[in-house]
What we know:
Elements: H1 6-27, H2 33-38, H3 48-69, H4 81-97, H5 102-111, H6 115-139
Helix pairs in contact: 5-6
Amino acid sequence: MTEFTPWLSLAGGGLIGLAAVLLMAFHGRIAGMTGILSGLVPPFSNDWGWRAAFLVGAIAAPALVVISSGYAIPFESPTPAPWLIVGGLVVGVGVYLGSGCTSGHGVCGMARLSPRSIVATLTFMAFTALTVFIIRHLIGGF
């Protein structure tokens, strides 16, 4: 069962928004994780430094919160590992076909009122709901 954490979620969303605004303000770049990561895969982009720093921060910040607060982030998945791998590959194909990920379209694109990003985010959300409904109620799985 998923625990409802409105204050932690609000704080996390605020920090994501702040990071997106600061990246746009100081580097003129959209904070989409797929685009950021793609610049760290050879051949490296000329601006790999900020990309590496952003990625390190995205990993280190939650780790520092856990270490400093003692708040444990529970993670369990009843889904078998092969299904997780298949799901990751399907998401990767979707990111490629959609020319971006949920962070790029959903956070940054919608904030800029980009019609393409709004349609992409609505598509992400609709298919997420449809997938959960099919898996939980029609197939009776995880």
